Amino acid sequence: GQWTYTLDSRADVLKAGEKAGETLTVKLSDGTTTTTVKIDITGTDDVPRLAPDSGSVTEDAVTAGTTKLETSGTLAAGTGGDAGEDKFQAGTLNGTYGQLVLGADGKWTYSADNTQAVIQNLKAGEKLTDTITVTNADGKTTTTVTITINGTNDAPTTSGGYAQGTEDQAFALQWSQFNAADVDAGSSLSIKITSLPTDGVLQYKDGNGNWQSVQSNQTFSKADIDAGKLQFKPDLHESSTTAGNGSGSSLGDQKGDYASFDYQVSDGTNQSTSGKFVLDIVADADAPTLSISPVPTAVPTGLKKEVWTGMAISDGQNTGSGVSPDKLEKAIEGASGMATVSTITNVMQGQVEVNTATRVTGLVYLEEGKTYTFSGVADDSFRLEVGGITVADANWGRDSGNYSGNFVPAVSGYYTLTMFHHNESGPGSFDVNVSINGAGPQDLSSGTLRLYTATTDITGAGVNLSPLVPNASGEGGYYTEVQLNRGNEDTWIPITRISSGLVDSDGSETLSMSLSISGLPNGSSAQLSDGVRTVTVGAGDVVSLDGWNLSTLQFKGPQDWNGSVKLTVTATATESSNGDKESTSQELTVTVLPSNDAPVAQNASHTLLEQETVSGKVVASDIEGDSLTFNVKTGAAHGVVSVDANGNYSYTPSKGYTGSDSFVVNVSDGKGGMTTSTITLDVKPVDLHVQTGSKNPDTLSGTAGQDVMIGDIGTVLMQPGQNYNLAFMIDSSGSVSSDDIATIKTQLATVFKQLQASAVTNGAGKVNVFLVDFDTQANSSISVDLSSANALSTLQGVIDSLASGGGTNYEDVFKTTANWFQGAAAKANSNAINQTFFMTDGKPTYYQQKEQATPGNNLTSNPDGKGGIEYSEIGGDGNNTDSTTIQNSKDAFALLLKVSNVEAIGVNSGITTSDLSPYDSDGKPQANIPADRIASAILGYELDGPAAADTLNGGAGDDILFGDRIRLDGIPGEGFEALKAYVASKSGVGSPTDADVYRYVLGHASEFDRSFSSDGNDILNGGDGRDLLFGQGGSDSLNGGAGNDTLYGGSGNDLLTGGLGVDTFRWALGDQGASAASKAVDTITDFGKDGDKDVLDLRDLLIGDSRTVASLDAYLDFKWDGKNTVIDVRHEGAGKDVTQQIVLENTNLADQLGVAQSDTAILQKLLDSNRLNND
Length: 1175
Hints:
By secondary structure, the chain is mainly beta. The protein is 12% helix and 38% strand. It is elongated and about 245 Å long.
């Protein structure tokens, strides 16, 4: 009953957990009884059985149109697995080198990229295995597909080659430059040259080490190339335009690429496709050629000889004596036949046929100062000319043909030489010898002297010649040799010819030229020229010579300089393609020889007034420092000129001349150098206008001409525009000596002359004058209008009648004068000032008595002092003065005082102030006045009170302005007439003109700087022109205006402005204060402003100084207070008070002068620049 059940494979279909059963009917041993055996079958997971697969591909056996290596196959279906496990999981599977695309049915396709380096690197016989795992449909069971990749032999490859070299240089080609590759072979590769370059040459080194040209299809191993045995050599001076691979599209010299050749790479079996090897040649500039020609010399060539045969020249005798030299020369010069021409090197001929004429011409080089003696014998007629001058001549009949003559050249040079000879009859000959400086004679030949047929023989050798310097006759002369690289200062020096060129002349390079100079003084410059262009060049400067003519260069050194300079000439070649440069330089020395430079002088011009003397000094210099002398070359046409040896000159125009004039001064350095200085003069007429202010504040304005303005007049006489009735009572009694009478006459004439001068000026008032002479009684008298033409002569008649005698009668003259003031002429002079001057030398000794209105016994008619007459007689004894005399005199004075102001003047010492005070309007008479001071006493009679503050405007023209009164020592009166009198006394001119006065004041200004305590505070404006301003006393404001002005501030604290131009600020002794406490302080507002070189003039202020810094330092202290420069002046020197202070407003004097802030530095600069004047 035991049974065994064996399950077969059909149950494999059951999956895990699936149930199945099988019931089996079994028979019992009886064979009939049956029973069943039921088997339950439970499924399990069966693992299928899989078989691997394989395939293969071969390198480079790609599917057409692709780069793929492909193969395929089918995996056997799995067995023994569960149902459905005979399939595979489909998909794309990645291997090491490729991919497997698997279908569920087991079909697969493998592909790999043939370009993979690992595949391409396979050699023949080498394999790669790519095993890819595949999975059964059960997702667990796997098998493999193995692909074998079989290698093959690959052909080498190349992408083309490229190399760069340098112009004119061969260079080895590098293996790497061929870009050869072979996956199979490395060092076993080689290069086959399949075509050759058109430009340049491809070379290889043979077994002997020699370079040979590569032939087409020649092969070179990598080892050969690595050993440097293959090179490219470009053609000379050729290159590419760019240094970059242009793929060989444009080949050749100066093209994009220079050359190329074709090649293949071989591995011994296979060869690559053809590759192109491109070659570029980088342009490299070649150093250009540069040559500086040596100083040329001309090799002697001999002389030109011309011979005429059958030419008769005779004096008609035909005796063989010869003809005159002139006839000889004329005949040969006029020869019309054809001459035989040759070149000779020795001037001689032993056999000359009859009627043969010979002319020898050319040039001979002779040296300056040497004596050349030409001598010899000639038969029959002979003449020799050197430089166009006949040196020797001869004829047979005169001196048997013997001749000798000397020639001494003034300069070295090439002199024309001409010889004439003729044989008249018989045997003829000529021979010319020369001796030098007395040495023995030698043949005149090329071996003795340098002889040339023509100038072209010399210039053709590169020697430069001057133009012909002709002889005075116009025949012949000489040429001087223009030296190269050597010449005199301040002249153009020719430079040796310079030539240059490009070595590479195919157009790829350009050439430039430049020049630099060394050896010039610092800060100087020279000039360079080629005759067309001229440039200025300093030391170290580089001058481009492009476009210049290098055969005509000239050099000129700095002005007045001599020495040597080095010129460096540089030629530079530049490659057009890449700017590469190469230069060649050479040096040459130019020597500048010293020469005597003529001095240099400046011209000058002056504007002056007629009869004014102007002076100056010729400004001249000599670069060599030679001492200069001066003298008149051409005098002035309209004046007197003086010039001393030091160049100081003066000029005074002729009297009455105005206009332009000039004179010329020679300036000599004593060594032949000379120049001239022209002094131009403009003589202006004096157009003088005089204006005088009054006691009151005035504003005076000038004209366009010359003005003299006087701000104030302090005397009664003469106020501008004021009418006057003036009476003069003159005592001529017996106590007045005859000498005093004579002096009084002169004094009165002076008074009346000055008064009339004032009376006839523009704007003057009417002036009536009454002159009466008295002694015992009033004597001669006269009344005149001073403006009338004969006024002075009329007054002079009374003056002349003065005579000493009699007593002194005050009463009669008082009444006489009182009546005149009440007369018609005086009364008609409206608003007139009535002024009487009463002059006497003693007390009254007479008077009038018994006055009555009607005539009586012994009574005479006399003025009554009331405008009428009375009848009276004389009382008193003529010797004594009693109370009656005094009383009568006082009573008469009272009548005069009613109609006139009276100034009493006591002449000499015979009468006192107390005696005269009853007869003076203010009781302040003048007493003890000498007879010769009467005019001053009258004209100086002052008004009371200080001067007014005036404003004076000069305007255009050269003006003289006085801020206050003019009072001059020893001169009566004041104003312009006092100036005239002063000038007359100083100059000796009896009657100086207004112009004389004007010129004198300009020339002696310091004499008129007068200040008085009563002077006013004035404003003076010079305006345009050369003005002279006197502030005088007071605190004044002076402004020079335009022009070179002189300002005298005078005493007081003044404000000074120079204005435009070079102005002089001047002080005189007396302008300073009395002490440090009362020092004068003057302020200059514009000292040295706008570049004007203003001047401080202290010559008349400082006492005991000298013109040295050491001396002046004791007098002057300079301080900078942050705004102004303050100058403290001790006019008496060291240790004394500062009595004058000068403030330079808004000016730092040290900065202006460019010196340190120290007294000594400032003083030195002021003195050196002539901006401080002192003794």
